[in-house]
Structures
1.
Amino acid sequence: MLKKLISLFKKGDKSLNNLESNILNSVVFKLSKDLANTLNDRLRSINLVQRINDGQEVNCYEIYQGSPILRTEQRLTDIKGEIVLATFTLIRNDVTFLSGKVWLVDGVFFSLEYDTLPVKFIDNDEVNIEVNISDYFLNIIQ
C-alpha cells in the first residue's frame, strides 16, 4: 500500500499547463483582491500536478519535505472538506467545448475537474473562458 502511495506522488508534472493556467487565471480575476492574492500564492506553491483519467481530473499539490501539504495561509475559506469554488465553461466560435469545476479541499485550491475529457488546447485559438464563482462559496465568505 505504501509503495502505491509513493508511486502516485512521483508521477506528474511540476506545473500547470496553459489550459489549466488560463482557467485558474480567469477564476483569480473574479475574486476579491485578497482572495485573488491568496489563490495566486497557492498557484505559485504547486510543485506536483497529477492528471487522472486522461486529464479529466487535475490534482495539484505542494510537496514539502517529501509530503503533500495544504498551508492554512492559503485558505480561501475555513470550511473543511471539499467544496466547489467555481464552475467554468470554455467557448470557441459560440460553441461550448469544455466545462468543469474548480475544487477546494479544506479551503485550499486543490483540483480542476472537467465534465468531459479535455480536448487538446491550442494557444492561438479564439477561446473565451466563462467563470462563475459558486453561490455556496460566495455565501460562506460573506
Note: The chain has one domain: 2-141.
2.
Amino acid sequence: MTAGPNPAPFFIVGIARSGTTLLRVMLDAHPDISIGPETNVLHHWFDGVDSSSLDRWSETANGHDDLVLEMFERIHVDYMTERGKQRWGDKTPQYWKLIPRILGTWPDARFIYCIRDGRDVVCSMRDRWGWRVHYTSRLWSNGVSDALDIVDEHPDSVYVVRYEELVRNPADAVRGVLDFIGEPWDDSVLEPGQASHADFESDSSAATQPVFTSSIGRWREDLGPIDSRVANYFMKDTLGRAGYTV
C-alpha cells in the first residue's frame, strides 16, 4: 500500500518526556502539516494479534497489516482534510518499536526520533507520574539502546532530533526536520501558541508556552547524590552511545 496522492507519512517517536509533544505542536503549526492527538493503536495490532490464529481464517491473513494501516491512514487523511492541510503525520512516542513493521507497508515513511538526556527524562517522569528513579533509569536505558539499534538499521528513514537542540536552537532543529520530510520552511513553526491545535491535550502547556531551556541539565539539581549515582549506574553505557557526557 502507498499513500496514494498524499505524500509519504511521517511519525514523531521516542521515549516519553523527550520532546515529542513540543515537536508535534511546532510542526502542527505549519500551514500544510496536520498532526493529531496520539493514536495509540498500531502496537495493539502488531504486538497483540496472534497471527497464527488469523492464518486459520485465511491464507492472506498476513496482508491484514496493510488493511489496518489503510484504516489508520484514512483517519489521518480525513482529519487533515477537515483542517485544510496537505500532509499528515503521527505523534505516538512508542511507535519507534514499530519502525520496521511500518516500513514494510510504507517504504517511504519517515520517522523523527526524539532523544533527551536520560537523567532529565527521569526527573520529568518522576514529576509527571511519580515513577521511581531506578525504574525509569532502566526504562530509558533499555528503550533508547533498542531504539538506536533500529535507527542504525534504517539510517535513510529515521532522523534524530535532540531535545537540547530543539529548545536551544528551535529554528535550526525544526528546519532540519522539515528538510528531512520534504516540506518548506514556514515561520509559524516557531510560534505554535498562535496556531489552532485541534483536540490538543488539555493538560499540556507545550502549545501555549514559549520554548524554554531551563529543563536542560535539571538533573544536576533535582536528583540527589544517591539518585544521581543510581541513574548514572543504569544509564552509563547508553548515555555514552547517545552522545551525552556521564
Note: The two ends are 44 Å apart (CA to CA).
3.
Amino acid sequence: MTFSPQINNAPGLASQKMILVILLAEFLVFIISGVSFSFLHGAVFIHYGVDIFFGLLYFASIPQFIVSHQWLAVAADVSIVSQLLLLIRNPLRNRLAVWLMLLLFLYYVTLMGYLNHRNFHTGFVLVLFPFLFAAAKSRYFAYEATRYFLLFFYASAAFFKLWYGAFNHADHLSISVADQFAPYIVESNIGIRTAFNEYLVNTPGVGFVFLLLSFVAELVAVAGFFTKRFDKLIGISLLAFHVANWFVMDLAPFGQIAFISLLFVQKAFVDKQD
C-alpha cells in the first residue's frame, strides 16, 4: 500500500471541507445560543473539574483574562470563525488547524468553568486532530486514532450504563426526565415535547424501552473496532441517539455532529492505492 499526496485527492478534500463546514455551523450555533467567548463576558467561574489541563489554564488566569476583556472575547470568536473559513478553503493548512484546535480547546475549558454542570461533548475540538498533519500518511493514522477514540467514547458510555445499574430500575429514565423537566412542568409549559415527557414520567415502561434503545444506539459502536463496513450505520445510530436525547432530555447534540460525521468520510484523509 502506498500513500499518494493528499492534494491529488479531490473527493477527499471535498469531504474534509464538509466536516469543517459542519464544525463552523456548530460554532455559529454556540454564538447564536449566547455561550461563545463574547457572551461569557464577566462570567463568574464556578469550577474547572479535576482535569490537570483545565487547572493549569485557570491557574494561569487565561480564561479569566479573556472573558474579562470584551474586545478580546469578541476577537477570539472572530478568530475562530475566520480560521474555520480559511481552513474550509484549504483543509491542508495544518499549521492553521493547530492554532484553531488550541483556541477551541481554550473555549471548551472556559465554557466548562462557567457552566454549573459538566459537558463532555469535546467532539468539536477532537474532530480537528486529523487536520493537524501535513503528510498524507500522518493524516491517515491521525484519522484512525480519532475514529477509535470516537468509538471508545460511545461504547464506554454504553458500558457505564450497565456498570452503574441503569437497568436495575424500570423507572430510571422516567425519574431522570422528571428531574430534567421539573421547571417546565411546574410552570405548566405546554408543547409536544413537554407532553411527551409527562407521558414518559407517568409511563415508566415506555421510558425503560427508550433507555434500552439508547443503550443499543451507543453499543453498536463496538462493531467499529472490528470492521469499518458498518461505519455509516454507526454514524446514523449515534446521530439518531443525539437527536432523540435532544428531544427527550433537552441535551443538544451541537459539539458532536462534526465529530460523528467523521464516520461517513473514512476515505477522505488519504488517497490509498494498492
Note: Strands lie at 2-4, 271-273.
4.
Amino acid sequence: MADNPSQNIEKERRNLSNTSPVLGQWPEAPLALVLAQIRFESFMDLDTAASPFRDRIEKLYPRIQPFHALSFPFASADGTPPDPTRLAVAGYDFHNADQTKCVRLELGALTYFVTSYEQYQGHFEEDWASLVLALSPSKDLFVTRAGLRYIDFIVPTTGAHPNDYVQEPLGRAPTVADGSPTTTFNMLQYAMKEGVMRIQYSQASGKMELPPDLQSVQLAPSPVMLKEHKALGAILDTDRWVEPAASLPSPQIKALFSMMHNDMSTAFKSIITTRALNEWACQ
C-alpha cells in the first residue's frame, strides 16, 4: 500500500533527524536541555549508594567525575581550631562517551540531563526509567519530589522578534515614558490537578546561557546553543513537578513522569505561535 502524503512528510522529518544534529522530533527544534529529577529519602551515605549504581550504569555512562561542595568547619566548644576549609564530594556525574547525557547522583537526589534528545516516548522515558530502577532495583523509593524540565532557546530568524514565537502575555512589556524594554522576564505558575507547572520566559540580547542553577552541568551543547546569535533572543523554561511524599515502585514513578510530560506537551503547544510551528517543525 502506498504511503499517504502525511506519512511521506513524517518519513522526511525522520530522515533529516537521522542525518542532522537535532534535538527533538522537529528539524529545527529549539530545545537546549531536558532534565528529569527525583528527590528521595535514603538511609545510605553517598558512597554506599554510588558504588552499586555505578556498576549498573557504567557501560552506558563510562565517564565519571565527582563534583564538590565547600565545607566550612567551625571551632569546637573547647576552642580547638577547626581543620582548614576543604572541598567535600557532593555527588558524582556519570557522562556518556560524547558528553551529551549526564546522570547526577547526590545524597537524596537523582537527576538526568541531556542535550541530545530524540523524543520522550521510547527514548528519554526509557532511559530515565532504567536509571531509576538502577538506583533502587529491589525496593520502592520514598519520593519526596519528582520533576521534569525543558529549556528552549528561541533564536529568531532575520527580521523576526522573539515575541513572534510565543502567545501573549509572554514577552509583552508596557512602554515606560519614551523607553523600550531591552530585557523582559515573565513567570507564570499554575496549580495543576497534581503538583505545579511553572513557565518562565526571558529576553536578552547576545549569547544566551542556561539558567544559573544548571550551569554546573558539563555537557556538549545542543545545536540551538551553537547558533550564531547577537540580536534579541529568548529562553523558555518550563518546569513541572509533584511532591508525592510516598513510597513508589518504578512503574508508578514512570507513570508519574508520563503524566507530567503530557501536561508540558499540551502547555507548549498552547504557548507557541503558528510561526514557531512552521519554522521549528518545517511545515
Note: DSSP finds five helices and ten strands in the chain.
